[in-house]
Amino acid sequence: MKIGFLGPKGTFTEMAARGLFETGDFIPFRTIPSCMDAVATEEVQVAVVPVENAIEGSVNMTLDYLIHKQRLPIIGGITVPIEQHLLVNPDYQGEKIDKIVSHPHAIAQCHEFLQAYYPNAEWEYMNSTGAAAEYVKNHPDLAIAAIANETAAQEYQLKMAHTNIHDFENNGTSFVVLSKESVGVSYKGSAYTEDKTTLMVTLPSDYSGALHQVLSAFAWRKLNLTKIESRPTKTGLGNYFFIIDVEGAMDDVLIPGVVSEIEALGCGVDILGSYPCYTMARNKANV
Amino acid sequence: MKIGFLGPKGTFTEMAARGLFETGDFIPFRTIPSCMDAVATEEVQVAVVPVENAIEGSVNMTLDYLIHKQRLPIIGGITVPIEQHLLVNPDYQGEKIDKIVSHPHAIAQCHEFLQAYYPNAEWEYMNSTGAAAEYVKNHPDLAIAAIANETAAQEYQLKMAHTNIHDFENNGTSFVVLSKESVGVSYKGSAYTEDKTTLMVTLPSDYSGALHQVLSAFAWRKLNLTKIESRPTKTGLGNYFFIIDVEGAMDDVLIPGVVSEIEALGCGVDILGSYPCYTMARNKANV
């Protein structure tokens, strides 16, 4: 199976893709839209893209392109803990680091560590944590280090000089798997956590309490929401819409009941996917 | 007044800062945390950082750092339309562009334009749209173009070869102004749109319908919500919290009423700010 992911190699998105799929051709794409387009043109069978709290790539980019440009079903999800490490060349023995390279978000996420350990090191921004690791690999003569993940350390045979240097202990990034159909896609079973259904709800107009009415349809059925996010519409269909994640798979009674009730209120409802979710174990890199 | 913003020069954040303040020292910072820290240490009086749908910098970074690390009041907001242009050196006369440079998100946002006009041009990623414009300025010998905004065009004296090349017409980025106090901060009055109050609500536990109960407190008072977003907590205080934007300024009756009612449900409530919001006019760059 051909698996597209937001590249380059050694990013958190590659980590997510390899966490979900045992085997396959893992193909990096330069942007989220090009990765999703490759599913539409059948260049790849599935695409793995970040959807929440991403280091590389933007949540909004994924949701906007999915909703407005390339409507592909969500067929799976995975949460990857954000664990950043300080990577150096394996033969590097010194203590002094002149320069730290990484994606701007990754550098910002290790703000406290850098202030405490390397207050005088210069920073240089790279396009991704993977690109930073590659840069360190290609410059063994320099006293530099990259902030990147374990996959990047393996990919570029770098040594982890410090592990888990990120400021927030429980930070994670969520990724979704997009595909034309879920048939023939199988995941590693070990890290399965729950089934989830994602809905997009468009409100008829921006009036007080509209969202409250919509949530009533979930609340009295005791359907638990794990995420709700409002986004401005870009198409003139309404003022804003909501992305709502519901615990549980699509069924014959409860979720169809919610959908007809919300539609009766004058809202638009689209089911973006009903799919299994996985969680990657934390602290893999405590070496 | 010293105004810190997420740099470098020529970014959308600088555009937001200059849209809000008539005069002042505009000081670029390398990361969102360092920009916010500079307010705490009084190096600058206010910080302007992106909070939603940003090109450079991440929404989550701003909210997370604000909530968990550096709790500064929000004292103002501005929405800037995302208008991307293709910038070339002023003496460039050719038709052929070998390479397009910009931030990965900006390149992704102009996906359709690039496919239609420059399908064969190479892309090179830069740390920001501002950095891309600077790169074009410094390489007048190359057949290259940057995707960036009007501020960057002015900053680096570049020519707009194509204007408004972004795929989505109504895309915008929201920024907030953070400061220890709002006294002595005055905005340009022209683009004022509304007052807004931002609340952070922590739910006691992840049970069905908890959010529905919280929203009831707003709904029966006919308080209109303009944004709601769920975020995972990182501190172990609860499973998740919500950032809620309410139309209208803090008053003596309605919002305090909401707060006591939500607290009676066992939730935690923090008021992150009550502040005037501004909107920058669209299509300034239709030249």
Automatic annotation (TrEMBL), chains A, B:
One of the record's GO cellular component terms: cytoplasm
SUPFAM superfamilies documented for this protein: ACT-like, Periplasmic binding protein-like II
GO molecular function annotations of the record: prephenate dehydratase activity
EC top class named in words: lyase
Residue ranges of domain ACT in the record: 199-276
Zinc recorded as keyword: no
Catalytic activity: prephenate + H(+) = 3-phenylpyruvate + CO2 + H2O
Site annotation Essential for prephenate dehydratase activity: residues: T173
Residue ranges annotated for the Prephenate dehydratase domain, each copy included: 2-180
Keyword Amino-acid biosynthesis: yes
InterPro entries tied to this protein: ACT-like_dom_sf, ACT_dom, Chor_mutase/pphenate_deHydtase, Preph_deHydtase, Preph_deHydtase_CS
Cross-referenced PROSITE patterns: ACT, PREPHENATE_DEHYDR_2, PREPHENATE_DEHYDR_3
Signal peptide (residue range): none
EC number: 4.2.1.51
NCBIfam families: PRK11898.1
Name by which UniProt lists this protein: Prephenate dehydratase
Organism whose genome encodes this protein: Halalkalibacter okhensis
Lineage, highest ranks first: Bacteria, Bacillati, Bacillota, Bacilli, Bacillales
Gene name tied to this protein: pheA
